[in-house]
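Duplicate of earlier report; Flavin reductase input re-posted below.
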Amino acid sequence: MFYEPKNGHGFPHNPFNALVTPRPIGWISTRDRNGNDNLAPYSFFNAVAYEPPQVMFASTSAKDDRDGTKDSVANIRETGVFCVNIVEYAMRDAMNVTSGSYAKDVDEFSLAELEKAECSVISASRVALAPANLECKLTKIVQLPGEANFAVFGEVVGVHLRDSCLVDGVFDVSTFSPLARLGYKDYARVETIFSLKRPGEE
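Output:
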């Protein structure tokens, strides 16, 4: 079948959400100017450059108390920094708790009973036991077509790696099974890893 999104899809649920999968999850922690911590997962997330290292995430909905966006984007506008916490399978339930829509002064770390630690370079909290944390300084917020669609780009200025994830000098994702977003209410975890050499590589 074929459909044009502007005319609707005719399914009970939007199939677009299930087409670009699996998607890594950026568990974004921020702090507002009053010192309130926030933690929320975003599946429109990825790394976008090596030198300097840069990441992005997109927020696609709004809350009534946040002037056309959500807590994460509003806080980043205020402070210019955020932290990406890598989500492991073991933390799936805690991540899901933080996906709820709460008042802007609610601390999702506390709701999900997550230990927090202070970031080293930026003023924000991070998930203390996450496999990795990427401390980021905002480079650009881009408003995309559509209501409440914002892409946030940041430069990674600090990296925390959990010691148990380092094996023979390599950050080994098989030690923690990264969680990925599929479509609808579905998720997946990385369990099988294989390598491929590019043409011309030794």
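DSSP finds three helices and 14 strands in the chain.

Merging into the original ticket.
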